[in-house]
Amino acid sequence: MADPVTIADIYALFQTSQAEADRRFAEADRQMQELKLIAANTSREVAGLTTRWGQFVENLVEPSVVRLFQERGIEVQETARRMKSQRPGVDRFAYQQGLFVIRQTGDTVAIVNDTIFQPAAW
Fold this sequence. Notes:
Elements: H1 7-71, H2 90-96, E1 102-105, E2 108-111
Antiparallel strand pairs: 1-2
């Protein structure tokens, strides 16, 4: 017949279980910290890649934009980058203020102002 289970046996079992739970918790905590570090590094790398990609695209697009203006007989002396807005109606407002509106069309860009558009003189 098996020995009866004593309070000491139960206490020893709880201690063993608690030690194992503590060990697993510590391992999970260590892995979580490692994942946080990996996520932070990944976010930083993606942000850098996004910035470099944006600069690459701007460098590809800018000569085309200058050419579009030259085709309209407008001499381009300066360009500005990183100009964008998410506000509704900005295109119409820019047009009414005598500004050219440039929009991405597929893999290139186009001036969307119509033929009766009169640009403002600066």
